[in-house]
């Protein structure tokens, strides 16, 4: 079981507290959401890229995740991209990833859903999100180099 770093837990709590709402329904933040987002933030920081993760709460309680470059004026600014979504609210949980295993361009990936897993299994799937970020960043650098 992956342990939550207190500093990332605090960042995740703040991010979820300030989450953009696409719904009028108010959802109580679940500890599993804080755990998932804090581990995501830690893994993104470990990439060494200046990225931030905007979050949007969807009408079914899912959290939609994106990534964008903090410094758009950097030498190779990322276009930013949709990562996927995770729903840990209610009985029917799911996680969406963008599958790029058979694609040359990561932006052409196909959405794949995983349903009713436990939190540790969803956390293991975070590696697919990190892989996707790495592919999009690599593509972005290639595009800017010409």
- From the spread of the alpha carbons, the general shape counts as globular
Low-confidence stretches: none
What about the largest sheet? 7 strands, mixed
| Percentage of residues in DSSP E strands | 15-25%
Mean pLDDT: 86
Helix content: 25-40%
Number of strands: 7
Distance between the termini: 43 Å
Number of helices: 3
Q: Structural class of the helices, strands and pairings? A: alpha+beta
Q: Compute the gyration radius: what is it?
A: 15 Å
H/E element string? HEHEEEEEEH
Counting copies of identical and different chains, the oligomeric state is: single chain
List the helices and strands and how they pair.
Blueprint: H1 6-17, E1 20-21, H2 31-46, E2 51-52, E3 55-57, E4 63-69, E5 81-87, E6 94-99, E7 110-115, H3 119-145
Parallel strand pairs: 1-3
Antiparallel strand pairs: 2-4, 3-4, 4-5, 5-6, 6-7
Helix pairs in contact: 1-2, 2-3
Q: Describe it for me?
A:
- This protein is of the alpha+beta class and 146 residues long.
- It has 3 helices and 7 strands, in the order H-E-H-E-E-E-E-E-E-H.
- Strands 1, 2, 3, 4, 5, 6 and 7 form a 7-stranded mixed beta sheet that branches.
- Strand 5 and strand 6 form a beta hairpin.
- Helix 1 crosses helix 2 and helix 2 packs parallel to helix 3.
- It is globular, with a radius of gyration of 15 Å.
- The N and C termini lie far apart (43 Å).
- The model has no long low-confidence stretch (mean pLDDT 86).
